[in-house]
Amino acid sequence: MSKKNSTKEMSFLDHLEDLRWVLIRSSIAIIIAAAVAFTFSDFLFDTVIFGPKKPDFITYQWFCDMATRFDLDKSFCQKELPFELQNRTMEGQFSVLIWTSITAGFILATPFILWEVWKFISPAMYQNEKKYASIFLACTSVLFFLGVAFGYFILVPLSINFLSGIQISPEIKNQIDINSYIGTVKTTSLATGLIFELPVIIFFLAHLGIVSTQNLKDFRRYAYVLILIVAAIVTPPDIISQIIVSIPMIILYELSIIIAKVITKRNQEKSHEITSR
């Protein structure tokens, strides 16, 4: 869907060609960003990846202070987390270095990837909607990075603290494989970043008429239950921690309903204008 062809119909092969170049340019951007991450691998691993493993990580300090102040569960007030990391394969650390750099490259290159996606889909938008490209890029990038930050600073420490503290017998020592640990950090952070894109996804689904405000309202009770279940699983057994995890998800869902309402109303008005002509 290149802009040079926006004034005329494009064939299926033309669309595929444009999509191919979107993927090529996005892949190049990820490789360049991954090379930067690889160059600063010491900081990437020692400070970022292994940060949630350290008892002085900012999230643990915050939850410990909060637990002390309100006399709650003090499982975060630990001098050492009860596990150690290990590598059990010859190529393990090299593989971890490469794939973690690629993941970091994907995160860093996200604004460029989103810009490429916008250029690809913009010909299908109304003319007055195309001028919001900068707003689209800013909103999607901010939401993604907020999601990654929420996953990294909140969900990852909660998950690590909870899972590393489970011990079915004193005979079993928690010696976690490096791939398992880093997989938890990467998957949780990326998944939360994508979840925070929910308002943007709803915008396009509502624009295409796939979802409506009523659909989201009808599913609201189930969404809230699902959010609360996830919060209860990943947090300590106190209500404040569960609220901290639940509130951003609930806000995102309610924001999606508002967006769907605005887009649905706009589509109805445009349909009415076309019909009345």
Automatic annotation (TrEMBL):
GO terms for molecular function: proton motive force dependent protein transmembrane transporter activity. It comes from the Bacteria. One of its GO terms (cellular component) is TAT protein transport complex. Keywords: Cell membrane, Membrane, Protein transport, Translocation, Transmembrane, Transmembrane helix, Transport. Pfam families: TatC. It is found in: Cell membrane; Membrane. GO terms for biological process: intracellular protein transmembrane transport; protein transport by the Tat complex. The keyword Cytoplasm does not apply. The chain crosses the membrane at residues 21-40, 96-115, 135-155, 190-210, 222-237, 243-263. InterPro entries: TatC. It is a multi-pass membrane protein. NCBIfam families: tatC. Forms a complex with TatA. Belongs to the TatC family. PANTHER family: SEC-INDEPENDENT PROTEIN TRANSLOCASE PROTEIN TATC, SEC-INDEPENDENT PROTEIN TRANSLOCASE PROTEIN TATC, CHLOROPLASTIC-RELATED. Part of the twin-arginine translocation (Tat) system that transports large folded proteins containing a characteristic twin-arginine motif in their signal peptide across membranes. This is Sec-independent protein translocase protein TatC. It comes from Avrilella dinanensis.
